[in-house]
Design a protein that fits this description.
Elements lengths: L1 H14 L7 E9 L4 E9 H9 L13 H12 E5 L8 E3 L1 E9 L2 E9 L6 E6 L10 E8 L2 E7 L5 E5 L2
Parallel strand pairs: 1-8
Antiparallel strand pairs: 1-2, 2-6, 3-4, 3-7, 5-6, 7-10, 8-9
Length: about 170
């Protein structure tokens, strides 16, 4: 009976190890002094491990030496930036440069940047992070440039938008 009571006490704690919603937060900052866009993406650790484990026979831990390279590839596949077409100039894709990743409690931050070829107040962004894994996935984007700020919610059916920062 004691063993059963102990298990009953432990059960709620085990339930806390998985979250009931699926989301990410992308902080995006236009840095005109450095002529770059700086990105910080926060995702739940277990979700990122699930994403990086797709197509593998065993679940990949973020402690695995391959995790950083796989996270970089994942970021490049699921985030795309461009300067929108304007003034007879075509849409200009921006190349993401992975900076690194950092653990924070039950989440991980992925950092990247992209060089801006010209001054910008608008950015086109495609964000499909975790959308192929979770039907309820919501990706919140907070963008800023100086005092200008905007936010956008990306989800299945709304994977891309133009962010205006004026």
């Amino acid at each position: 009976m004691r063993r059963f009571s102990f298990l009953l006490l432990l059960l709620p704690l085990l339930a806390l190890t998985r979250h009931t919603y699926h989301s990410s937060i992308l902080d995006l900052r236009l840095n005109p002094q450095k002529q770059q866009v700086e990105l910080a993406l926060k995702v739940f650790t277990d979700d990122l491990e699930s994403a990086l484990s797709q197509g593998r026979s065993q679940r990949l831990s973020l402690q695995d030496p391959r995790a950083q390279a796989l996270a970089e590839a994942y970021l490049r596949e699921h985030l795309a930036l461009a300067l929108p077409a304007a003034d007879r100039q075509p849409k200009a894709p921006l190349a993401l440069q992975f900076v690194g990743m950092q653990a924070e409690k039950d989440a991980h931050w992925l950092y990247a940047k992209a060089r801006l070829p010209r001054a910008a107040t608008t950015l086109w962004l495609r964000n499909t992070v975790m959308l192929d894994l979770f039907s309820d996935q919501m990706n919140i984007v907070n963008a800023e440039s100086g005092p200008a700020k905007t936010s956008e919610l990306y989800r299945a059916g709304h994977e891309q938008a133009v962010l205006v920062l004026k």
